[in-house]
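Troubleshooting log. The previous structure file for this entry was overwritten by mistake, so regenerating from the original sequence record. Sequence copied from the archived sheet and checked twice against the printout by T.R.
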Amino acid sequence: MNIYFLLEGRSTEKKIYASWLKPLLPELTKVKLYHQANHNNYCLVRANGYPSILHDYIPDAIKKMEETDKYNYLVICLDAEEETVASKRKEIEEFIVKNDLRLKLGKVKPISIIQNRCIETWLLANRKLFDSRQPLEIPLSDYAQYYDVSVKDPELMGNYSQNYNHAKFHFLYLKEIFKAKKINYSKKNPGKARNESYLDELKKRVVSEPEHLKTFQYFIDFCQMIKKELSFE
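Regenerated output below.
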């Protein structure tokens, strides 16, 4: 079993996925370079944002997997941003078909992990980090009044301001939550968000609120599916 993870983000996603996959799929070992994959390995390749992940990196990933003939899954991770999860997934599927990449994939199964709206949206669901009942300062108090992510599903949150898009607001909201705890969060350094304890809080959230974080649940379900497949090897 070998998995090729293709990540839209330049920094954040690679650091978080690398940390989270250790407890989620301890049976797999990360390799630095794609051609090093042999048995029960995975590699993480970051793209240069969107749309280059679609037009440049997906064809390149398929070419590399065809070359090595060692991979079972191509996992494409990207943000929904201002679009719907369904439309993003459809766009990827249609691109693969339109460019005759299905045959080249061979035994490799493509999986789309769509972060709705972005990976910071998932991170907003940590109730241990943020409880709106605690004293809050501006602008966090304004954000919580607009939409309380400790109660409501972060994936369904609207846009607070027309000055930026949904993903930007979700990033700003998360940054203020970290700041209130006197810790830092940035795209280059997601800090405590990489910890297994942080991941555990998100998993607890979806257990207690099964209707929340559907795209995060999709990622967790994928990992559980892989664990099951590995048990039959």
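The chain has two domains: 2-118+214-231, 120-205. Archived copy saved in two places this time.
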